[in-house]
Prior knowledge:
With 450 residues, the protein is of the alpha+beta class. The protein is built from 11 helices and 19 strands. It has helices at 12-15, 25-28, 35-40, 128-131, 183-188, 195-203, 325-330, 334-340, 357-374, 408-425, 431-448; strands at 44-49, 58-62, 65-71, 77-81, 95-96, 101-102, 109-110, 116-118, 139-142, 145-149, 171-179, 217-222, 228-237, 240-249, 253-255, 267-271, 274-282, 285-294, 395-400. The strands form 4 sheets. Strands 11, 12, 13, 14, 15, 16, 17, 18 and 19 form a 9-stranded antiparallel beta sheet that branches. A 4-stranded antiparallel beta sheet has the order 5-6-7-8. Strands 1-10-9 form a 3-stranded antiparallel beta sheet, with no helix packed on it. Strand 3 (65-71) and strand 4 form a beta hairpin. The mean pLDDT is 94. It binds FE2/S2 (inorganic) cluster and fe (ii) ion (FE2). The site of FE2/S2 (inorganic) cluster (FES) has 9 residues, from loops.
Amino acid sequence: MTVILPQGKFDGYARNGLAGLAPDDELTRIGPGTPCGEYLRRYWMPIALTSMVQDLPLRLRRMGEDLVLYRDRSGALGLLHLLCAHRNASLEFGIVEEHGIRCCYHGWLFGNDGTILETPGEPKTSQICNRLTQGAYPLVEYKGIVFAYFGPVAEMPAFPVFDTMELPDDTMAPFLIPSPVNWVQVFENSIDPYHVTFLHTRVSGVQFQENLVNLPVVDYHERAAGNGVFYTSTRRVDDLVWLRVHDHMLPNFSQNGGMHVEGNDSTYFVRTGLTRWVVPVDDTNTITIAWRHFNAETDPHSKGRPDLCGFNSVDFYGQTDGRSYEQRQRSPGDYEVWVSQGPVTVHAREHLAATDAGVALYRRRLRRAIRAMAAGGTPQQPTAGVTNPIPTYGGDTVLRAPLRSNDDRKWMSDLSRRVADIYRSGDTLLGTERIAAIRAGLAALEGELQ
Ligand code: FES
Ligand SMILES: [Fe+2]
């Protein structure tokens, strides 16, 4: 009997050398002294949920450093290097005191700024308290999330309050999700708008809204301040045009459009359902830490579940490892794609295409920012030159607009630029005044389109 051999390209052998390619260390390595690590250390970073800090010290790894986070009995938070400055016992076994934490081994007491307050076994004449400190980082607690600053204290920037941290009639529920992979590939998911059509709609079934099934027209709009872009994913839904708007800022901040907007009704600048950071634990582990926003505009049918938001849990599809392997294979979500790329995805073995413009843009800007800082520059803070709170753009607009007979996609792209200009026109206004001005501009635009 003759076996007929398969015919085809079968390039496996020719391409098997790809397995030896290396990750992009300049963007992905974040430990102390690395260029990216030094750059990230100039920004306030969310590190934990307030709810994770109970009566016992909490051992944490963030930015490649082992740390202990605790709340002393006066109610103040402290974040110290994990190993005691005396002889390296771990402060996760320390005793929380009225002010600070005491090492269990020889009783040294550390204040929340790392000052050594007591060395009880040493002679009274000891000068240890004056010449030594325990490594410590400053903290800010804000609406259920603890933020830390890991950089040189003389360079500590203002704490960034984004406008969606202060929205009226908005309930914010913090959550934190660990992923066992590098931070860049987790963050890049938020500037890859085309995956929504495939992963979340056509491939895995409708995970969010069925009106996301059509490929969007995507445009990137420069932010007036802050190093980043906001982008529009524009789709036609019958005689409506749905502009889904995400905000994206270096190094690791993003903000989605509305979580439960369906694109079926005319709506103007419905604010975000998600304010999010992606923070390195170390080079191969990451946390997503964020607030889900719950309000009548972003969630008109009350589909959101604030009770499901917390540690390794959130109320939207596919964000954790909490499903069976079979379920994850049958209907993969975001978690499956960023984790399956490997511990540190290898950019050199990718083949970026037209739909990866956002990913390429982000990598270019991140590399430029890292190099600028390494050359002695000062990283651009989101607070520089803008109002407080900081204006953000995440939030959907749906406009009634009859179908254009020719080149509707080009027309939608032009429309997205007009909408972006209207969003930016409110930059100098605050709060409800800004929202009202942007909505008035959008209403006027919609009137022109009829
Ligand atoms: S090791 Fe901490 S007090 Fe000695
Ligand atoms: Fe996604």
